[in-house]
TrEMBL record:
One of its GO terms (molecular function) is glutathione transferase activity. Pfam families: GST_C, GST_N. InterPro entries: Glutathione-S-Trfase_C-like, Glutathione-S-Trfase_C_sf, Glutathione_S-Trfase, Glutathione_S-Trfase_N, GST_C, Thioredoxin-like_sf. It comes from Cydia pomonella (Codling moth). Keywords: Transferase. GO terms for biological process: glutathione metabolic process. The keyword Coiled coil does not apply. This is Glutathione S-transferase unclassified. Belongs to the GST superfamily.
Length: 233
């Protein structure tokens, strides 16, 4: 049975998995989950992922969530030893490090500032902005110290996808990060060197730009964590 991937069209973790599947030329069925309709909040969805988050992969009955785990699995299962996820212990360790850094720090701080206030009742605060700059400064340091052309090596790895899609949300809200020269160079190089992969991010960026200017009405949603914005009618 063809691999199924439940995605949200503008979700950075979903985009990264789509990019890896595209580059590895792995056929898959894409199932679009409508975040704004709360399609991921149902008990049926929770059977696939109790975290009620998107993406989820279904590989012939093997369900996996957490985009980092999905990326690692599809490389290991479908193209073991692919340069996207090298077998060399040290290079792989750096890829894993960058994936952890993105999950714990980079995307965590960036998405809290870029994405969460679009969909939920959060403000973009000076403290939130400070955390974004901290995340960018740390990534800049990693790139400077490693001296690599890409996030984890001198070639594309799955870590680039996650970090690119996090960074893309900064561009989507018009946040200028050009003072982080190495991050900016790496981001622009990705656009130039991988136009077909960038197109996947770019289409999502346009959606985020639209939502940033026109925040969606989620007042029908009963979210377990996030405060729902009240819409004045
Ligand atoms: N750590 C997860 C995060 C996935 C995630 O945050 N997905 C968002 C969409 S981009 C989501 O499903 N959020 C659910 C919600 O906010 O209700 C991963 O990397 O897969």
């Amino acid at each position: 049975m063809v691999l199924k991937l439940y995605v949200v069209s503008d979700g950075p973790p979903s985009l990264s998995v789509r990019q890896a599947l595209a580059l590895l030329e792995i056929p898959f069925q894409q199932i679009d989950v409508d975040f704004c309709k709360g399609e991921h909040m149902t008990e049926e969805y929770a059977l696939m992922n109790p975290q009620k988050e998107i993406p989820v992969m279904d590989d012939d009955g093997f369900f996996l969530s957490e985009s980092n785990a999905i990326l690692q699995y599809i490389c290991d299962k479908y193209q073991p030893g692919t340069p996207l996820y090298p077998l060399d212990p040290q290079i792989r360790a750096v890829v894993n490090h960058r994936l952890c850094f993105n999950l714990s720090t980079y995307y965590a701080n960036i998405s809290a500032y870029t994405m969460a206030p679009i969909f939920f009742d959060y403000e973009r605060t000076p403290l939130g902005l400070k955390k974004v700059h901290m995340a960018l400064a740390v990534f800049e340091t990693y790139l400077a110290r490693a001296g690599t052309t890409h996030a984890a090596a001198d070639h594309l790895t799955i870590a680039d996808f996650q970090l690119i899609n996090s960074t893309m949300t900064l561009e989507a809200i018009g946040l200028d990060f050009s003072k982080y020269e190495k991050v900016s160079q790496w981001y622009e190089d990705f656009k130039k060197d991988y136009p077909e992969l960038w197109k996947i991010s770019e289409d999502a960026m346009k959606e985020i730009q639209h939502f940033n200017a026109n925040p969606p009405d989620l007042s029908h949603m009963n979210h377990p964590i996030h405060p729902i914005r009240k819409i004045k009618k």
